[in-house]
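Reply to dn_fold:

You asked what the input looked like. This is it:
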Amino acid sequence: LGIDATDPIRLGRFWEAALGTTTLTEAPGIFEPRLDLDGTAYLDLCFAQVPAPNRSPQRLHLDLRGGTRQAEVAEQLRGLGASDLDIGQGEAPWKVLADVEGGAFCVREEREAYAATGPLAALPLEVADPARDAEFWSWLSGWVPADGSVPHALRHPSGRGPLLELVPEPAPKRADAKNPIHLDVRLEPGDDADEVSAGIEARGGRELHPDWGELPWRVFQDPSGNELCVLPAAGPAA
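and this is what came back:
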């Protein structure tokens, strides 16, 4: 997960306490913790500094598992600096909070689909065509279809960890609005980056060429316009 932050260490420490991650990198402008899923699979979060708060619509957000302890979990998060947030959810069974930089997230109620997720229940991603984009993300990530709270959900093949839930977008992605949170994937050793790029474009995505200088990763959009990065395979150059 790539997450914009004006203060990466402050926001990263909040999420580290919320999820029980371990720190990989802490340096000026960047904070990277790791969420272990089952001892072999993991999810990394990368909080990268931006010059000003990114207030673009949140097309991807974090849903935490609350379950039978929903009220207790929400109160613990408030103790870490979270605040209650009204986004028009009304009498929803989940609780909506804001993190220490104002980013919205949810604490979910008890659901069978979240039984083996760990502290992070789901990653809802707004897309134009959930069925199409589920196929795209399954091909790109290696995650597989899973039973969830929405018709189109994916999960790590281990059956552990959060669900990636493809949900209908309330409005099309704005070309001038970068997602405050985006998904990254890492190549496996032996993968050909150009072949992956061609596969992304063949499935409706496209490569972007931002003027950010020379980068070790490549930037794309999925078929619905959501940004994503393809990182190099793990190793000295990663």
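The chain is about 20% helix and 30% strand.
Hope that clears it up.
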